[in-house]
Amino acid sequence: MSTALETTGFLLGVASWLIIGASLGNDRWKVSTVSGNVIISNRQYENLWHSCSENSNGVADCRDFESLLALPGHIQASRALMIISLLLGLASMIVSLLGLKCIHIGSSTDETKGKIAVTGGVLFLLSGLCVMVCCSWYAARVVQDFNNPFYGAIRFELGTGLFLGWGGAALAILGGGLLTCACRRIKSDKPKAGYYTANQPKTIYAPTAKSEAESRAYV
């Protein structure tokens, strides 16, 4: 695997970690819809941590969710998945940095560095999958409530935070896939195990007088 491709995977992983962090801190995971004939003076939006209301002058008033246990199950799971994703991304960056060919630490062989790079790539893949599941689950609930004719509360649409999460997840999966390509089989210089090798010279045994005498004795 070329050093440029491996470095590209690492940089994509770092970029994904930054975008996922920006997605988690974004306030607009879902935004109140403006469709319809009714003019709405206030715009409401929410994320995993609080809900906000913004008036026509652009002044926002945010209120944190008071009880964790009182929250819906998909919000609790989304919080856990996002935090796990950031922790996995941080660990994968450290591990992948040690596995890069351009970084020389100690007397690590190419085979060892390849295994370390693959470990970092797998962690990036897990990080991206966590964010993908989180954002897709949250978006599915928003779409379900929006299309529910019996839903009496405010209808919301998909916000910027979800799209940032999907973008960060895609970069994490792509970067992890490039790093896992570092898993290659390094040929060993040792000969293959077995009785004979391809280049082993053949030994021709010539019969001796003693062996001829012994064979005649058995006849």
From TrEMBL:
Q: Which keywords appear in this protein's UniProt record, sorted alphabetically?
A: Cell junction, Cell membrane, Membrane, Tight junction, Transmembrane, Transmembrane helix
Instruction: Locate the transmembrane regions by residue number.
Output: 80-104, 116-140, 160-182
Topology relative to the lipid bilayer, per the entry, is: Multi-pass membrane protein
Functional note: Claudins function as major constituents of the tight junction complexes that regulate the permeability of epithelia.
Q: Report the main location listed first in the record.
A: other
- Residues in coiled coil: none
Please report which protein family the annotation says this sequence is part of.
Belongs to the claudin family.
Please give the name of this protein.
Claudin
